[in-house]
């Protein structure tokens, strides 16, 4: 799996925000599927629900976004990826020890980067500054 998107990128693909034009352009230019795992699914779904709670969009908008995401999983644009969670957590502990004091990376940031590295991704797709810094620090190409 060569491209790993974090939830900030994925949410911008399905619901309008300041990053949506960039996210959609990047997504349309890709010719390979994106990794999609349980952590991303949880974070994206929760972001949709939190957006409703915060009044950023309607429940119908969130439901439509989730349907579109499911369609992308079914079509293969997002490729369900099985994760070895014990391995991810072991690597995340190493990343935390080596990088958190200098990057300010949070636990979920570290888990996403550890997952990308474990999947042997070459590209890490995120709008999150901390994740981008950490991903660059461990040798991933960062986009968009």
CATH superfamily (homologous) name:
5'-nuclease
Mean pLDDT: 94
Helix/strand-derived category reads: mainly alpha
Predict the CATH topology.
Rossmann fold
What's the order of the H and E elements? EHHEHHEHHEHE
- Number of discrete domains: 1
Strand order of the largest sheet: 1-4-5
Helix content: 55-70%
Distance between the termini: 17 Å
Question: Which CATH class?
Answer: Alpha Beta
Count of alpha/pi helices: 7
CATH architecture: 3-Layer(aba) Sandwich
Number of strands: 5
Shape: globular
Q: Characterize the main sheet.
A: 3 strands, parallel
Please compute the radius of gyration using only Cα atoms.
15 Å
Q: How large is the share of residues in beta strands? A: 5-15%
What are the segments in which pLDDT stays under 50 over at least 5 consecutive residues? none
Report on this model:
- It is a single chain.
- This protein is mainly alpha-helical and 144 residues long.
- The chain has helices spanning 7-14, 20-29, 38-53, 59-75, 85-103, 107-118, 129-137, and strands spanning 3-5, 34-36, 78-80, 123-125, 141-143.
- The protein contains seven helices and five strands; from the N terminus they run E-H-H-E-H-H-E-H-H-E-H-E.
- It has a three-stranded parallel sheet.
- Helix 7 links the parallel strand 4 and strand 5.
- Helix 5 crosses helix 6 (107-118) and helix 6 crosses helix 7 (129-137).
């Amino acid at each position: 799996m060569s491209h790993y998107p974090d939830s900030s990128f994925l949410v911008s693909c399905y619901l309008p925000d300041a990053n949506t034009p960039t996210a959609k352009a990047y997504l349309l230019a890709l010719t390979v599927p994106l990794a999609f795992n349980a952590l991303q699914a949880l974070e994206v779904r929760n972001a949709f629900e939190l957006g409703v709670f915060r009044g950023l969009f309607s429940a119908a908008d969130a439901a439509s976004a989730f349907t579109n995401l499911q369609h992308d999983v079914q079509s293969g644009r997002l490729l369900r990826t099985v994760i070895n969670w014990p391995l991810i957590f072991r690597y995340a502990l190493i990343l935390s020890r080596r990088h958190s004091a200098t990057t300010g990376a949070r636990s979920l940031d570290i888990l996403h980067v550890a997952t990308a590295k474990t999947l042997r991704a070459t590209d890490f797709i995120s709008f999150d500054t901390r994740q981008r810094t950490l991903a660059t620090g461990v040798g991933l190409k960062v986009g968009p």
